[in-house]
Amino acid sequence: MNITAPRGTKDILPEDTAKWQYLENITRKIFSSYNFKEIRTPLFEATELFQRGIGEATDIVEKEMYTFEDKGGRSITLRPEGTASVVRSFLENKIYGQAQPTKYFYIGSMFRYERPQAGRYREFHQLGVEVLGSDNPAIDAEIIALGLQLLEELGLDNLELHLNSVGCPKCRAEYREKLINYFKPYLEELCSDCQDRYDRNPLRILDCKVDRGKEFMNNAPKIYEELCEECEDDFDQVKEFLDLLDIDYILDANLVRGLDYYTKTAFEVIYKGLGAQDTIFGGGRYDGLAEEVGGRDIPGIGFAMGMERILLTLEEQGIELPIDNSIDLFITTIGEKANKEAFKYLHKLRKAGLKVEMDYLGRSVKSQMKAADRNNANYSIILGEDELEKGVATIRNMTSGEQIEIKLENLVEEMEKRID
Ligand code: HAM
């Protein structure tokens, strides 16, 4: 029996790990310039957190969670997203007692039992930010700017920012009624999923991929035209702050997001070239979530980006990340004695911080030179009996072919000079 990785999961092999590390490093750099601090929460949580936080009537909670009973009889769920966990942690650790707002970011695996396809996996990785403790609309614009900056610094373009406001429980309840009345005559024409959504979650009809494009969908009442005064004012300010930063957006009344905790601002950044799964990042405000999971009225906003989707977009746009997978030196040896001497130098060079490799398979000089190439060595040296006797070595620059003889005892310093 051949055991393979579970459906919807992927090994990340070293040639790809380098890209992931690059992405994580640039994320940490940019996020810290916006003063976000990293938080790491458990990969699994009490199931109830997601039921209450994300909402019982969402696809995630209804169909996509990896839920199991642990040996202690507790219902546990592998996290399908990071926001509920961050809010739980914020409350549990009483972070609200410190100076606000709190700006956290996270990078890690999430798990959803979805039908795998390009850009959609069962274990996937998100990098996300959450700001808790401020309802200032400037923060909404700030995190959108942050997400876009990251993608732009990676070299991506042709991204679309879609923006909506999903209002507050008060105006959304009224809008919900309007929507139910509006869709009533079209109930038969809706897809079977939407007929189901009609009673439980009618806003989700708006972003249905099946019903999209049907005439009556275009004329549905727009939520951003039905906001209460407070939400409208808030939305105007978000747009104004985006304008201040010269960030273009597309008003999108059908953007309702798949999680129930959103209030007011909701947004997604899309790259059309990705096909069906074209959202690179999505997020919004969730001013009622802390109340829902911990009984405290604390506003919040955040987004999460699918890291696989960032990498797919880079590929689609033909962008090579500037990844250096070279080593500084490969030591080729001839004979047992030289091999042992090289082994000592290998250790010294590595202790000096250089990336160095040698042959361990007793290969011919020719094969060792090939190994130097395969390892992308910038320099190589050959050590044999002769070199040892004379106490010299020839350093070869693998790109230019230039060779220079040095004293073997100076090898570490000579190499340090060449590598900055
Ligand atoms: P979400 O829209 O469910 O939001 O996911 C955010 C991003 O994660 C998506 O735009 C997509 O790039 C990626 N993603 C989601 N599911 C998958 C999947 N199965 N395979 C690959 N990538 C996927 C959230 O998770 C919210 N917690 C975002 C948020 C943070 N809102 C406020 N704060």
From TrEMBL:
Gene3D superfamilies the UniProt entry points to: Anticodon-binding domain, Bira Bifunctional Protein, Domain 2
Entry GO CC: cytoplasm
Predominant cellular place of this UniProt entry's protein: cytoplasm
Domain Aminoacyl-transfer RNA synthetases class-II family profile: 1-322
Pfam families: HGTP_anticodon, tRNA-synt_His
InterPro entries: aa-tRNA-synth_II (IPR006195), aa-tRNA-synth_II/BPL/LPL (IPR045864), Anticodon-bd (IPR004154), Anticodon-bd_dom_sf (IPR036621), His-tRNA-ligase (IPR015807), HisRS-like_core (IPR041715), HisRS/HisZ (IPR004516), HisRS_anticodon (IPR033656)
Top-level taxon of origin: Bacteria
GO molecular function: ATP binding; catalytic activity, acting on a protein; histidine-tRNA ligase activity; transferase activity
Keyword Glycoprotein: no
Name under which the protein is recorded: Histidine--tRNA ligase
